[in-house]
Design brief:
The protein has 7 helices and 8 strands, in the order αβαβββαββααβααβ. The protein is α/β, with parallel strands linked by helices. About 35% of the residues lie in helices and about 25% in strands. The radius of gyration is 18 Å and the shape is globular. The chain has a single domain, classed as Vaccinia Virus protein VP39 (Rossmann fold, 3-Layer(aba) Sandwich), CATH 3.40.50.150. The chain binds S-adenosylmethionine (SAM). S-adenosylmethionine binds near residues 49, 50 and 51. S-adenosylmethionine binds near residues 29, 50, 68 and 85.
Length: about 240
């Protein structure tokens, strides 16, 4: 796991205090958040994925295959419900947030953690090409503005007293184990598939990042919009 991401997940989980005892991670993917939760000593960890064939490596959490819009748990089951970068893929995110509210205990925490793709930054030499590539990635994904939309989605789901944090993940190293390196490859592969940018431009974009890094000028920043609330506001 990229060190920058591990640090981010560690910080994210401190927003739910006291430390949760029963954590649900929706749209778990390869289970990186739950790995950090285990390291922090959170005892009951449940991951949920819609993928039928889902078998993350080194799994040490309970795995459930289901749709986030219909969580297969009784009310008040978890004291923390979290998602990372899944909200934009869920067809009806408000419905998901209502379900998260149902399965969360009244004084538990609901966390969302989503990248705003329109504010992704790579230092590159060819600024016009970098801008074209990043804009195309933002605009062809399911919802490039999900980060800034998350507080409104929570409000539409009937949640109140929403704290909003913007955490900037920053890297200055460009290497296969870094988040920025992996993300650049995701952008390359995604746009190869959509056909919105010519393949040579995409290859040149990656080469540009390598050259920028070789000169010591590389910088990557990614804005995670984090919303935190409780099903029952403490003030009520
Ligand atoms: C971009 S990945 C993020 C994975 C992981 N949370 C992370 O941050 O590394 C989004 C994940 O959400 C899952 N997902 C999308 N829609 C879903 C749904 N309706 N119900 C459950 N999982 C869903 C996808 O299968 C995918 O694994």
């Amino acid at each position: 796991m990229p060190a920058s991401l591990r640090a981010h997940y560690g910080w994210l989980l401190t927003l739910a205090t006291p430390q949760p005892q029963r954590l649900l991670d929706v749209g778990t993917g390869d289970g990186r958040l739950l790995q950090v939760a285990a390291d922090l000593g959170i005892p009951r960890r449940v991951g949920l994925e819609r993928k039928r064939r889902w078998n993350p490596a080194n799994r040490d959490f309970d795995a459930t295959i289901a749709d986030a819009q219909r969580l297969p748990f009784p009310s008040d089951t978890f004291d923390c419900v979290v998602e990372n970068e899944s909200l934009e893929w869920i067809k009806d995110p408000v419905r998901y947030l209502q379900e998260a509210t149902r399965v969360c205990t009244p004084n538990g925490h609901i966390l969302t953690d989503d990248t705003d793709w329109d504010t992704l930054v790579y230092a590159a030499q060819d600024t016009a090409r970098a801008r074209r590539v990043l804009r195309a990635f933002c605009d062809t994904g399911p919802n490039g503005w999900i980060g800034r939309a998350a507080p409104s989605l929570m409000r539409q789901a009937g949640l109140h007293d929403i704290q909003v944090h913007v955490r900037v993940i920053t890297e200055r190293e460009f290497a296969p184990h870094t988040l920025g390196h992996r993300q650049a490859q995701v952008i390359h592969d995604w746009l190869r598939q959509t056909g919105d940018i010519a393949p040579t431009q995409l290859d040149d974009f990656l080469a540009d990042l390598h050259h920028t890094a070789t000169r010591g000028d590389y910088l990557f920043t990614l804005n995670r919009y984090v919303c935190v609330t409780r099903p029952t506001p403490q003030s009520s």
